[in-house]
Design brief:
The protein is α+β, with helices and mostly antiparallel strands. The radius of gyration is 23 Å and the shape is globular. A hairpin with a 4-residue loop joins strand 4 (about 80-85) and strand 5 (about 90-95). It has 15 helices and 11 strands. The longest helix has 20 residues, at about 120-140. It folds into 2 domains: about 10-215, Metalloenzyme, LuxS/M16 peptidase-like (Cytochrome Bc1 Complex, Chain A, domain 1); about 240-420, Metalloenzyme, LuxS/M16 peptidase-like (Cytochrome Bc1 Complex, Chain A, domain 1), CATH 3.30.830.
């Protein structure tokens, strides 16, 4: 066993708020991290983009914190803060000097328990426009910017909760009423749908008193609704599905996506190691062969999405040169992915070592440690599972990799998205 040594203690308030405490007195800083069990998968048809909208709304003030004051107060003490929204969750986090832990807890509690009194039409209209502008900048007017929503639509059927993009649609955002938004908040941003993790330099007895003081009186919400749509999926797509996009992009890019076991599956570790074999580092198969040796691509990317619902997805993409054709790139990428069936043990050992190193380096940062503990508690009801992640990686075998290539990376489970530059006459 190669158990990591991250200390932790769990607790739960009467209102259902889960608590994870992980002391580390190495440096005088502390991270406060809250994960809510709400993401784009929880959005009803016609109400997409609500989870991401709240990432913005939650910084617009609560009953005792004026608009934009959250940022100002944390940055004034030398802290950092942010939030992110994804398919399965939303998280909010601060890292502050240890002496300012109470400030971070008060701010997070005020927007969990006293957000609605400060919510008004002006704030909704303002943040709706901010999100729409973000969509224009990052998705609509960015080269390749809409790749994720196109790939999701290929891999997940229309009724699946992952079919639509996290940022949602402009039409749904425009149609959102203040009542819609308040109902979404009351349903999901409740203590019984959240994990609060504190990691870093703190005294346990003091922090428990502070958590009870600031979060204890927040009322629990109703039972969290079942996911909308149909979350069940076949293990594979069943065919090769594709989309070809002529767009204002500088170079041809071919993206392949595959359904893989969900993050909750023990087989996800096999997908992670396979992803590393293909595209992690300059000695990976795709970079070594397509970029350095054959010189058919300028760059490669691989990623295994840690998603929970029905199936996750693995992607690999290659970006060509000005004279590259989609056919050349797709053929080259397909050949290398299918050749992974011939992988050697030494390559598997290297990929596992690289993945381990990434995890350990992330855990050196107190904010990332808090984030991962929140994730493992929310997803698996077991933050201590983080201490055994290295064992899961090291348990991946050569035969498992080869079986994964045959069963999951073949033409019966492939989504191909091609971006090609518009040619001027």
């Amino acid at each position: 066993m190669s158990r990591l040594a991250i200390p932790l203690e769990r607790d739960c308030l009467d209102n259902g708020l889960k608590i994870v405490l992980s002391p580390d007195h190495t440096v005088p800083i502390v991270a406060v991290n809250i994960w809510y069990g709400v993401g784009s998968r929880n959005e009803l048809p016609g109400h997409t983009g609500f989870a991401h909208l709240f990432e913005h709304m939650m910084f617009q003030g609560s009953e005792h914190v004026p608009k934009n004051k959250h940022f100002e107060l944390i940055e004034r003490v030398g802290g950092t803060l942010n939030a992110t929204t994804w398919f399965d969750r939303t998280n909010y986090f601060e890292t502050v000097p240890s002496r300012d832990l109470e400030l971070a807890l008060w701010l997070e509690s005020d927007r969990m328990g006293w957000m609605l009194p400060a919510m008004n039409q002006e704030k909704l209209d303002n943040q709706r426009e901010v999100v729409k502008n973000e969509k224009r900048q990052r998705y609509d007017n960015q080269p390749y910017g809409d790749w994720d929503q196109r790939l999701q639509a290929l891999i997940y059927p229309k009724e699946h909760p992952y079919h639509h993009p996290v940022i949602g649609s402009v039409e749904d955002l425009d149609a959102a009423t203040l009542e819609d938004v308040a109902k979404f908040f009351s349903t999901y941003y409740v203590p019984n749908n959240a994990v609060l993790t504190i990691a870093g330099d703190f005294e346990e007895s003091q922090v428990k008193d502070l958590i009870q003081r600031y979060f204890g009186e927040i009322q629990a919400g109703e039972q969290i609704p079942a996911l909308p749509g149909d979350p069940h999926l076949d293990p594979v797509i069943g065919d090769t599905v594709r989309e070809h996009v002529l767009a204002e992009v500088p170079l041809t890019r071919v993206i392949m996506g595959f359904r893989i076991p969900p993050y909750s599956s023990e087989d996800f570790a096999v997908a992670e190691v396979s992803r590393a074999l293909l595209g992690m580092g300059r000695a990976s198969r795709l970079y070594r062969t397509l970029v350095r040796e054959r010189r058919v691509a300028k760059g490669v990317v691989t990623y295994a999405f840690p998603l929970l619902t029905g199936a996750s997805m693995l992607l690999a993409w290659v970006t060509g040169y000005p004279d590259s054709t989609p056919e050349q790139l797709e053929t080259a990428l397909t050949e290398e992915i299918e050749a992974l069936v011939e992988v050697k043990q030494s390559e598997v050992d290297r990929a596992i070592a690289l993945t381990e190193t990434d995890l350990v380096r992330a855990l050196e940062h107190v904010g990332e440690r808090a984030n991962l503990l929140s994730m493992f508690d929310l997803y698996f009801d077991d933050p201590d599972r983080l201490n055994y992640e290295i064992d899961r990686l090291r348990a991946v075998t050569l035969d498992q990799i080869r079986d994964f290539v045959v069963s999951r990376l073949g033409p019966n489970n492939r989504a191909v998205l091609v971006y090609e530059p518009k040619r001027t006459a």
